[in-house]
Design brief:
The complex is a heterotrimer of chains A (100), B (492) and C (127). With 100 residues, chain A is mostly helical. Chain A has helices at 3-23, 27-51, 57-87. The radius of gyration of chain A is 17 Å and the shape is elongated. Chain A starts with a helix and ends in a 13-residue tail after the last helix. By secondary structure, chain B is mainly α. Chain B has a domain at 276-492. Chain B has helices at residues 5-8, 13-31, 39-56, 75-97, 107-125, 129-147, 154-185, 190-198, 203-221, 229-236, 239-265, 283-302, 308-325, 332-363, 374-377, 379-393, 399-413, 417-443, 456-471, 477-486; strands at 64-66, 71-73. The longest helix of chain B has 32 residues, at 154-185. Chain C is mostly helical. Chain C has five helices and no strands. Classes of the chains: A mainly alpha (100), B mainly alpha (492), C mainly alpha (127). Chains in contact: A-B, A-C, B-C. At the A-B interface, α1, α2 and α3 of A face α6, α7 and α10 of B.
């Protein structure tokens, strides 16, 4: 499994995640896109950690990214829950009261 | 070279003080019965005060690298730690005053606030991209929650939602850029990345990584085109949090921007001036354009605003643009100008937001129309707000003028005249919308002629913020010297 | 493309698993598509209506889901990640000695404070 194939996979994941963030209307789907991007970075880190440098720094970074992605998702979902409780919808288009 | 884990602990006291305060706050909240007591506020004040004291006692002179190269203790980090701790103390005062937050459980609020402070401490000092990412998220995630703290107010939840989506995306893109940097150099320590990159390899991935990392940092300082979250979040969040976000994370964002680009992308003899990063791209032009666009967008959109908080949000976008002027050429003089401007900006902005809180408490609104006749209803509030707004414009003899002079001087000295012209035009434009509020306050009749009471404690705090705003316009030498001494980044 | 095909290692013991995977995937996806393409498509209003034991449906299908599910899932994720951090420490337990132990104890204590907070706030009550 060459390094370039792994980089292509992570680039594809990054693009999928970016597409999800930019086009999906449901806020939870946008969050899924964010998770995809973070996982693309994780693949990069672990791949580089194996092929480029035998220092374990990349894998440590990957563990931290996993933990932080989970924490961020938890907070984001709490905010979306609050949004659902007040407005009854979780669509990003519905957040249009603050304008200008 | 790098201090080990145990030996670094004695130099890590401010952060430990803040952590201990957070844990104590959790215990107090769990054990306490009275939801309305002032205990959390006082406890967090004590904690941040202790941290500020410990920061002042930290030795700046030999820069040290702590925790095996994760965190640096140099003049730069100490400056930003002191700045953010001071901002947090003022924001705690503002939170005690604000009526928006009055009926709610306060302890979680202070827990989040202190967590952001801890993140800012670590962000200003981090020298490893793992630590950078961790502290950046520690600054961002509690501030998402703080922005959405007013659960009943719909605009607050909407602000939090926009903030979280933008912030998560920006940090995801930034992390992807970091992964490229790690892959190109094989190390996560910023100075070593800089050394390997200086040998000059593979320009295209380095540019890509630099652009992606700029996305993440640009989001934090609300530079255009990553500024879209800022007006909505500033308007929807509780006003003390708006004040905090406009000063604290912005300062920490500038700290990390400077430290990252200085360490990774500029070679050590950038002291002589100019970026040494890959001369085939004109970095001066790139960041100059970023700065000019940020200033212009901030100022031009602020003209139309009717809500004071939104107006101040756009004005702080513009101020980030001014500060980016000092960043255009990575020289120590330019960086000193940024640091000096951050100090005066702290006083001006926090003062302005404090008056906004007082007026919101008294009139119940945050539109410019609520400020009509404030000169009659409460001369103290009106005069102090006028002082802060004129200082934000950059009119002599206020301190904002001196800050702008430093930024302009550096840009003109290095010959980037077009940027200075744009900045001057922008300052003139900003005079319009700041002066409009002053005009409404003094020259329009008030809707009700009852007096707007201002208690003694807010008077004291606002005076303490207004005095440096006036004084630093006349005698600014000590602060400028401190700023110049603090541009001492660890050159590992 | 040809390079990729020529680089397939036929003697790999997992190659047969790959063939199994491909065939299983092809069959399952293929059958669904086949039935959709070849089957009769006659729209009947009764056939496409919601089934509720033969009577007309009382209410809409969406059910008010309690927020307790989210809280439990959230707490699980956070403490699962704490356990994930405990694994590397456990592997190198002896090498890290007393210093690592105390450090890990502080980490667990901080998360314990969070657990106590969640407990007192009632996140662990019923369900």
């Amino acid at each position: 499994m060459g390094l370039d194939k792994l980089l292509v996979i992570s680039a594809a994941l990054f693009c999928c995640g970016l597409y999800a963030i930019l086009t999906r209307r449901n806020a939870v789907a946008v969050l899924m896109g964010v998770e995809l991007i973070l996982n693309a970075a994780n693949i990069n880190f672990v791949a580089f950690s194996f092929y480029v440098s035998r220092v374990i720094g990349g894998q440590i970074f990957a563990v931290f990214v996993i933990v932080l992605a989970a924490a961020e998702a938890a907070v984001a979902l709490a905010i979306f829950l609050r949004m659902y409780a007040t407005t009854g919808t979780v669509e990003v288009d519905a957040a249009d009261h603050l304008k200008g | 070279m790098h201090l080990g884990n145990f030996a670094s602990l004695t130099l890590f006291l401010p952060e430990m003080a803040v952590t201990a305060t957070i844990l104590l706050l959790i215990l107090v909240h769990v054990a306490g019965k009275n939801r309305q007591s002032a205990a959390p506020a006082l406890l967090s004040l004590a904690g941040v005060g202790a941290a500020l004291l410990l920061v002042a006692l930290q030795p700046a002179s030999p820069g040290r690298s702590l925790f095996e190269g994760m965190v640096a203790l140099d003049g730069f980090a100490i400056f930003f730690k002191a700045l953010t701790a001071l901002a947090t103390i003022v924001v705690i005062f503002m939170s005690m005053e604000s009526r928006e937050l009055a009926g709610r459980s306060q302890t979680e609020y202070y827990i989040f606030l202190l967590s952001v402070l801890l993140g800012m401490f670590l962000l200003a000092a981090s020298t490893d991209i793992v630590m950078l990412y961790l502290s950046l998220e520690l600054v961002s995630i509690p501030s998402y929650l703080l922005a959405g703290y007013l659960k009943g107010k719909e605009s607050s939840t909407e602000a939090a939602m926009k903030y979280v989506v933008y912030g998560a995306t920006a940090s995801g893109v930034m992390i992807y850029g970091f992964s490229f940097l790690y892959g190109l150099t094989g190390t996560t320590h910023m100075a070593e990345i800089g050394r390997v990159l200086a040998a000059g390899k593979a320009p295209l991935p380095v540019y890509l990584a630099a652009v992606m990392v700029t996305v993440g940092f640009g989001f934090k300082i609300a530079a255009v085109p990553f500024h879209m979250w800022s007006p909505d979040v500033y308007e929807g969040a509780p006003t003390p949090i708006t004040a905090f976000l406009s000063v604290g994370p912005k300062a920490a964002g500038f700290a990390v921007l400077v430290r990252f680009f200085y360490t990774v992308f500029a070679s050590p003899d950038a002291v002589a001036g100019m970026w040494k990063l890959h001369p085939s791209i004109d970095w001066t032009l790139l960041f100059g354009v970023l700065s000019a666009v940020t200033m212009s967008v901030g100022n031009l959109i602020a003209i139309n605003q009717k809500n004071v908080k939104r107006l101040l949000a756009y004005s702080s976008i513009a101020h980030a643009g001014y500060m980016l002027m000092g960043f255009v050429l990575l020289t120590p003089v330019g960086l000193k100008a940024i640091l000096f401007y951050l100090v005066v900006y702290l006083f001006m902005n926090l003062g302005a937001f404090y008056v906004v809180i007082l007026v919101a408490n008294g009139t119940g609104g945050e539109d410019i129309a609520n400020y009509s006749g404030l000169g009659i209803r409460s001369p103290f509030a009106a005069v102090s707000l006028a002082v802060f707004l004129f200082a934000l414009t950059g009119i002599p003899p206020f301190s904002g003028f001196i800050g702008k002079v430093y930024l302009f001087a550096e840009v003109i000295n290095r010959g980037v005249y077009w940027l200075a012209v744009i900045a001057a035009l922008n300052s003139v434009v900003s005079l319009y919308y700041y002066a409009r509020i002053v005009k409404v306050m003094f020259l329009e009749d008030p809707q009700e002629t009852t007096e707007l009471p201002v208690q003694a404690f807010p008077r004291a705090v606002i005076s303490l913020l207004a005095i440096p705003t006036l004084l630093l316009g006349i005698y600014w030498e000590p602060v400028a010297r401190v700023a110049a001494n603090s541009v001492r980044l660890l050159a590992f | 493309m040809l390079n990729f095909v020529s680089s397939i290692d036929f003697s790999n013991p997992y190659f047969s698993v790959l063939i199994l995977l491909v065939i299983a995937l092809a069959m399952s996806v293929g059958f669904v598509f086949l039935s959709q393409a070849l089957g009769p498509k006659r729209y009947d209003r009764v056939k496409y209506s919601v089934y509720e034991c033969g009577v007309d449906p009382f209410t809409t299908a969406s059910v008010r889901i309690s927020v307790k599910f989210y809280l439990i899932a959230l707490l699980f994720i956070l403490f699962d990640l704490e356990a994930a951090f405990l694994y590397p420490w456990a592997v190198l337990f002896r090498q890290l000695g007393w210093f690592g132990f105390i450090e890990m104890a502080i980490f667990i204590l901080i998360l314990l404070a969070g657990l106590v907070y969640a407990w007192k706030k009632g996140a662990l009550d019923w369900q």
